[in-house]
Specification:
TIM Barrel, 8-stranded parallel β-sheet, alpha/beta, 366 residues, binds flavin mononucleotide, single chain
């Protein structure tokens, strides 16, 4: 096998780093502040162990599960990420095709680089719309109505961005959305011709959900006005599944459950918001205790392997999501790279299940 194949998420990251302009790599890879939060997430995941169990005939294993009553072929999906087409032209639709193939949810960001209508069609319904509250909220509710009209059954309200976190790596490159090309970016792009020729030739990626009349969005506009009344209004208008993403506090989790939210996503936004936030994997076990068994809990942040994902599942999550590493795989090797990384993650989880003497994630939890 070629030495440039992807055998781990770190391989994908290393290859992506070579191909992407520094500005784009640092936008995807970067985290808040001094990135101590990202290191804390990693350390907390590494500190968790899975105990091998022996002689249990684990020859017949399955990674399938159910999610909101529907079968999914993996207990992991794809987290919502803005502007994925910066990783490579067509990245959004590669993710949508992957979601369709495995019947797993693809998070479609408010600031996705492909319109939400096209995403859910290509994902064959396996798409959840991720909503940001912004400004006075008028545009937010319009977007939710549009998602409903496009056939989305699940809405994910992201609540951990009252203000966009300060990410020095983005700031240093002058990253904005849509991005400007000044002398510094020009040099960066010139030094990464493969990316520049393919991506810039297709036109700069845009925040596609705002290309239609009647919508506007400023990534830097404050989202700080959202409160519990906003949530109650959203719960009233949204009849489908409502997930709230970006929860790290057990009291908040209990209040969300009482407010009629269908599932909670424990997440630190991949350490991109509050550098001092607790490691979300530690918050997960506390939140599971607070909401009780049986309440749907999802998890993302810092997962870099199938073993990491399995740790989150046995710690109390019913389903987990990968973020950055999906974009790295695409930046590294396009759609084939994405497929390779997906297989790596699946194999890692399946092999880890065998090692701990379980034939399914359900069995691993007991
Ligand atoms: C480049 C990038 C863009 C993101 N954009 C969004 C977004 O628009 N909405 C959102 O809810 N989360 C967004 N996230 C956060 C992800 O949904 C997820 O919480 C995070 O990536 C998980 O951590 P991981 O990347 O370590 O797996 C973004 C993350 C990255 C890396």
């Amino acid at each position: 096998m070629s030495t440039s194949a992807i055998h781990s998420a770190e391989d994908a990251r290393r290859l992506a780093r070579r191909r992407l302009p520094w500005m784009v790599f640092d936008y995807i890879d970067g985290a808040a502040g001094a990135e101590a939060g990202a290191a804390r997430d990693r350390a907390a995941l590494d500190a968790l162990t899975l105990r091998p169990r022996i002689l249990r005939d684990v020859s017949d294993r399955s990674l399938s599960t159910t999610l909101f009553g529907k079968p999914a072929q993996r207990p992991f999906g794809i987290a919502p990420m803005g502007m994925c087409n910066l990783a490579s032209p067509g990245a959004d639709l590669m993710l949508a095709r992957l979601a369709a193939r495995y019947s797993v949810p693809l998070g479609v960001s408010t600031v996705a680089s492909t319109p939400m209508e096209e995403m859910i069609e290509v994902a064959q319904g396996n798409a959840w719309f991720q909503l940001y509250f912004s400004g006075d909220g008028a545009g937010t509710f319009k977007l939710a109505e549009r998602a409903r009209d496009a056939g989305y059954e699940t809405l994910v309200l992201t609540v951990d961005v009252p203000e966009v976190g300060r990410r020095p790596r983005e700031l240093r490159h002058g990253f904005t959305m849509p991005f400007r090309i000044g002398p510094r970016q020009f040099l960066d792009f010139a030094l990464h011709p493969r990316w520049s020729l393919s991506t810039l030739a297709q036109g700069r990626p845009q925040m596609a959900n705002f290309q239609m009349a009647g919508y506007s969005f400023d990534r830097t506009e404050s989202r700080a006005k959202a409160n519990w009344d906003t949530l109650a209004r959203l719960r009233d208008m949204w009849r489908g599944n409502l997930v709230v993403k970006g929860v790290l506090d057990p009291e908040d989790a209990v209040a969300l459950k009482e407010a009629g939210v269908d599932a909670i996503q424990v997440s630190s936004h991949g350490a991109r918001q509050l550098d001092s936030a607790p490691a979300p994997i530690s918050a997960l076990s506390d939140i599971r205790k607070a909401v009780g068994a049986g309440y749907p809990l999802f998890y993302d942040s810092g997962l870099r392997s199938g073993e990491d994902a399995l740790k989150a599942l046995v710690t109390g999550a019913d389903f987990v999501f990968f973020g950055r590493i999906m974009q790295f795989a695409i930046a590294a090797r396009g759609e084939a790279g994405l497929g390779q990384l997906w297989d790596v993650l699946s194999d890692e989880m399946s092999i880890a299940l065998a090692q701990i003497g379980a034939t399914s994630v359900e069995a691993a939890k007991v």
